[in-house]
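PT: before anyone asks, these are the final sequences, not the draft ones from last week. 585 residues across everything. Please model them as a single complex and drop the result in this thread when it's through.
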Amino acid sequence: MRALRPSLAFALLLLLGIAVLVAIVPLLPGYDPYTQNLGASLLAPGDRSLDGRLYLLGTDTLGRDMLSRLSLAGRVSLFIGFFAVSVSLVVGVGLGLIAGFFRGWVESVIMGIADLQLSIPRVLLLIAVAAILGTGVFKLALLLGITSWVAYGRVARAMALSLREREFVLSAITQGATPFWNIRKHLLPNVLPQMLIVGSYELGQIIVLESALSYLGLGVQPPLPSWGLMVSEGQTYLELDPWLSVLPSIALFMLVAGVQITSQSFTAENDMSAEVVKAP
Amino acid sequence: MAYFILRRALQSVLTVLGVITVTFFLVRLAGDPATLLLPVEATNEDIARLRTALGLDQPLIVQYLKFLANAATGDFGVSLRQRTPALDLVLERVPATLELALTSFVLGLLLAFGIGLLMRLSTSARLRTAIMWVALARQAIPVFSFGLILILIFSVWLRWLPSLGRGTIQHLILPALTLATYELALYLRLFNASLAVEQRQDYVRTAYSKGQGRTKVILAHMLPNALLPLLTIAGINLGLLLGGTVVTETVFSWPGVGRLIVQSVSQRDYPVIIAGVFIISLIFVVVNLLVDVLYGFLDPRVRLS
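LR: through. Structure below.
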């Protein structure tokens, strides 16, 4: 199966490309994501406007520099992704460890909520919640985080179930350690590496979800750019200027493929559990 | 078996109940539907009159119980925009969504099955690597981007297929392809892995020792056993597929429930949103129930746990 895995080097190359896009591009002088130049709208990559300015990746309908917009959109996506993953990691690990350590009705309630959440397609849940609570980068990140805890919760609970029977936990209990002390000092350090692996996989999922919501008009709102939103804005001009949709799609692909391959290289060769348990 | 089915069915009912409860309270959190319904120049008396008419002046718990009682009879209220029962609007769209979801589901399995078999039967390692790379690359492209690329190639450039709407088989091809290929990489790896597991089994060695050829052993002996895991994962991932229809329907202007929900969100048409979420969850829960029961029949270990 080794040959069936794309190499880590390729993934890191993609991620390097994204890093350059989001970190180096904003340093280029004279371009910014918001300045409109109606005399230079819908330029193709590499075109010069009438006043001689070079637009490396062209411009959108309002004559805004595509490269700068892609770069800002990337920073927005990455912020949302990392923020949401942190939130879901904290919530998921917390609830999972509590469920696994205390067992009984606590476990039933927590896992019942998890099952309930898994029984609604995640996009649908997010649409319903976004429709009602409104949109905005911070809200969106929080929302994605809160609705994504199940993957961590399940794994953390499963690990806590076996950890709580181990000698070092039992001896701590006999010496009067409180449950929360045990969870913090004994369970948490043991599950954390595994959780970070789940998190690296989830990062790609979250970014795809964010872009899908933004595409549907329920995520990042204009004038702030998002790759998903840019694809949607470009769809109207697909015949006239396909670059508007294709460029953000390429950026999304680079980031998602890079993250996915990197996270897969963490997991064991034939272990597909991370993909199989993913929330719908 | 009857007990197993009953228990799973009860779980499903609870799930659907949970879903509409959550949606109801979320919608009420959003604000007063009465102010949304009336034009801006409405007076406070107008708002109060409408609130009484809609029963919004009653305690939340009373409203909730009433809502549940109504929902049980299929009454989700009237669409705020179209003035027709919300459930009717949603039910009109169900055939389109089912058509897309089922076609994609079957197409996805067929693709995984055909390509997976090709990979196994072929002796070219390069071909197998190439296929896997393509499938993995596909998985890293979000549904809407992939759909758009298909439109660009097949509708804009080649002009072979329509880019939006529903009606003929031609309309179905691009959206179904978009959805069906999304999980292909996962299915292929799973199919390959389970074929690899079967390959080490005693019965395979026996078959080879009887002098049967490689193709015969793979097709007649290993395949039936390797299919079960594929079916299971496909069933589990049906939720992902249903979620995917929401986005795909929007990309291709496919007149399904998902597109209706998205449109209703921008129009703040809450009764339609609730009815839509309810129907999709219902479809999802029913399908999951069927998959579980079917699996219980196929593998007795499942129903005993």
